[in-house]
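Why do we care about 3D structure at all? Because function follows from shape, and shape follows, mostly, from sequence. That is the central idea of this module. The next example makes it concrete: a single protein chain, its amino acid sequence, and then its structure expressed as tokens.
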Amino acid sequence: MKKKVLIGLALVVLLPVLSLGVGLFLTMRGLSPMPADGQDLAGGARAVSDGFTVSYLLPYAGGVALVDCGNDEKGAAILAELKKRSLGADDVKAIFLTHGHADHTAACHLFTKAEVTRSPPTSSSPPATRARAARCRAGSACPPTRRSR
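And the structure:
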């Protein structure tokens, strides 16, 4: 009897853990790792990591553009990369935000001359985001998807 209880308990504990492990493996196995900090990419782009998020610095019309602004409010990694290029915060001409989470937008306030563009919500966006987008399309007050500062 004890043996059956132990086997049942082992199945109850191990089966969910194994299922989770297999699920994660199947989900993550095809993903490419994030580029290393400071890695040069095609077209003169450069990956810049703040230790949590990778942003991308792109050559752009007399300066640079950023894809996301990272998780660090002080923007230390981005500013250091700009300094290596003999550029400053005012040389960031455009910021393209993949989405509005804080780990992608924290340092945006440093680049006051940049035009900021964020991606529109999609069908996989949370319902509240889609509802806000629908109100925007209907003409109600909403945050701009594109703004100049």
